[in-house]
Amino acid sequence: QVQLVESGGGLVQAGGSLRLSCAASGRTFSSYAMGWFRQAPGQEREFVAAISRYGVNTYYADSVKGRFTISRDNAKYTVYLQMNSLKPEDTAVYYCAAKIGIATPYLREYASWGQGTQVTVSS
Q1: Long-range contacts for 61-68 (Cβ within 8 Å, ≥24 apart)?
Q2: Does 1 score more than 90 pLDDT?
Q3: Which 3 state secondary structure label does DSSP give 69?
Q4: 55-100, pLDDT tens digit by residue?
Q5: Residue 119's CB: how many other CB atoms inside 10 A?
Q6: What tens digit of pLDDT does each residue of 9-34 get?
Q7: Closest C-alpha among 23, 24, 30, 20 to residue 51
Q8: Between residues 84 and 1, which one has the greater pLDDT?
Q9: Of 82, 80, 93, 90, nearest in space to 121 by CA
């Protein structure tokens, strides 16, 4: 199993940018497709973005398409989420997650999760 630790969250004004990082340890990082999910207070956890094992394929929720970019560096065992043009509705705890096989937007398919990092966007 892989262990995941997110970082990079914080408070930012609307229109600003943040870059989240997720550092992995344990099994070979390139064995895993990676995803970012988020959970706002009182809401269910939702898909944000996913990336295939070698970064060839990426997928995004409609709500973040064109604003967020997922990437990975397998040599550094790290996946990133670059978030631009942030909106107050992007406020949530952001989680990275890992799964064996292809990248998908389905939360239940991800077996390993980080502890989350808070992103707050002020208006």
Answers
A1: 61/105, 63/89, 64/90
A2: no
A3: strand
A4: 999 999 999 999 999 999 999 999 999 999 999 999 999 999 999 9
A5: 22
A6: 999 999 999 999 999 998 799 999 99
A7: 30
A8: 84
A9: 90
Say if residues 105 and 50 touch (Cβ distance below 8 Å).
Answer: yes
Identify the burial level of 42 via C-beta atoms within 10 angstroms of its C-beta, where 0-12 means exposed, 13-18 middle and 19 or more buried.
Answer: exposed
Cα–Cα nearest to 48, from 14, 13, 93: 93
Farthest-apart Cα atoms in the chain, separation: 41
CA angle 80, 18, 14 (to 5 degrees): 145
DSSP 76: G
